[in-house]
Sequence to fold (730 residues):
Amino acid sequence: MDNTNYPDEINIQKYLLVFKRHWLIVSGVFVAFAALGGANFFMQPTTYEASGKLMFQLNRTSSLTGVGEKIGHLESIGSNNASNPLDTQALLVQSETIKKEVINTLKLEDQTGNPLKPESLVIKVERIIGTDGFDISHISEDPKMATEIVNEVMKSYIANNIITNRSEAIAAGTFIQKQLPRAKTELDMAAEALRRFKTQNQVIDLQEETSGTVKAILALDEELNSARSQLADLSTQEKQIRRQLNLDEGQAVNITSLSQASGVQEVLSELQKVQTQLANQRARYTEINPSIINLKTQEVALKALLQQRTTESLGYPIKLAPTKLQMGKLKQDLASDFVKLQSQRLGLENKIASISSIRQSYAQRADVMPNLEKKEGELSRNLLVSQKSYENLLTRLQEIKVAENQTIGNARVLQYAEAGRNPAATKSKMLILIGGGFVGLLLGIAAAFFVDLIDRSVKTSKEAEELFGYTLLGLIPAFESNNTSETEDITCERFSRRIIVATSPRSVIHEAYQMLQANLKFISLDKKVRTIVVTSSVAGEGKSEISANLAMVMAQAGRRVLLVDADMRQPSQHHFWGLINSVGLSNVMVGQNEFSQIVQQITPCLSVLTAGVIPPNPLALIDSERLTTLIDQLSQQYDYIIFDTPHLMGTAEAAVLGKMADGVLVVVRPGVVDSTSVAAAKSLLSLSEANILGIVTNAVNIKQEPDNYFYYNSPRSENSVEKVDTAPLS
Fold:
């Protein structure tokens, strides 16, 4: 029967069992590393640590004078505030330059007499929390030398700090002096560019000019609107008078002028008189009458004179009917008004044209104002920047000249070095001692797990159940040899001590076999299991012992049981029961003897059929119709038939016989069988298609089984295991 009821889970007991199995390895590795740690503890020499304090501060002289404050100032050049300038100073204290000066000053040498290398001189620098100071220390076996080294380190650092600060001032002054001529040239060029711009664009004050231009444009717009309104009124009046006079513009002016000319009016008056006389004479005479002809001649002469007077009056010839050269007082006034209106209209038109021209010029200037302002702003800014740069360079140069003569260091000795025992060395020795034991424990555990990992043998009942995948039907505890039990039945003296259920009733082993019998009964509720094949993966797992004890415990329950030794390769059942294996199963199979003649009665309910003479081909006897017929016949006589068969590795009898029987019971002994053999045995059983009842683990070590997997873990069970004088058989 397959078992799939156990999910993968973390089981702490599984790891504890590994420790139990390999506790010697863990102990050995732990002791070895602990011993190494102890040896190191006592072999390390005593060291001394000298420690001095160095404090960093600003240049107070520079702060008081107000110049050179940034020279030697400690600050970070990083892009964020995560870096600390004091960390940089710590690196300078530990720099190779400082170490070389200390080595040369103190004449430090190595073991060969050569000058000590800078990398061999270890200087430890630690920040004093909450201050701008450092704790500088050195560890040495000579306390005096350690003190001298720390003091010399602080002294060399302070001297180098002063030199560095002064060199910074000198370098800054040199740089500024080189920059001054270029800055002066840039200032002059910026001023000249601004001047040329104002001259070319006639700029005095663009801001004031812009404000005045806007005001002028607004005033011109207002005046232009007023003039256009007046022009509209005059045009309306002019059109009205023109309709009244029924004259065009030129005639109205000319007629008005001629109406007021006396010479023209005199000739016009004479002409009118002659025309009147002519009209009267024509009423009396014909055209050829001398008086009419004379009057016509006068009319022509007067008209010519009128034309002459008109031309003289106007200054240019004009053709007008004589009737239009004279008008009444009203028309004369209207004509005079018309002329005035024309004059006013022309004046307004000229004024509007002039204002528009002026406004256009202002608008054009206003359009270029933004560009001019932008350009002037750029030039002004360039001039201001150049001026500021030049002034700053001059100011900084003066400050640096003063700072060159007052620069001091940023550090001073707060406490000179004092030597004492090195607590870190003592702590380190203790850590090495403890660490040796800890590492030894870890490596021991790792070694135990490694050995357990490479060990392919089945170690526990749970592991056997997981590998086979069959139901675990029973666990038989391991027991050792001892004297005969007081509870031994004298009727069983000829039995082997391995038949524990007969020799030691009411023991843990007896209870285990009773549990196995009960489990076999439980799994056969649906289908009666009467013929059982008992086998194992490899030799030495105790399958014969399991078969014998199972047969006996069933017989003790009142069942008629036949135990058949079907292992005709290495038979062993006759040893358990104290029988002679002269005849047996092989003799029955070849027809030499009848079953009833050679079967041996052990108890009223238990019979044993030994293997008999070992045949040359045991598989041929097993895989035969005669054995099938024999099993059917024996099933009528016995309640249970148990076959003790060879192991599965290298033989096929168990698989063949398992197909004939009702089920197969597989015996597994932890520590004897490995996972490879289990896989091969399981594969063979699967190919035979036999009914696998389950597995039973034999010779189980109670202390190496998880509590939830072994039900014989009480103090009684450990102390009540009987001890016999023979080793388990296969």
Observations:
- Residues 555 and 605 are 5 Å apart (CA to CA).
- The mean pLDDT is 79.
- Residues 329-403 form the longest helix (75 residues).
- Residues 210-375 form one domain.
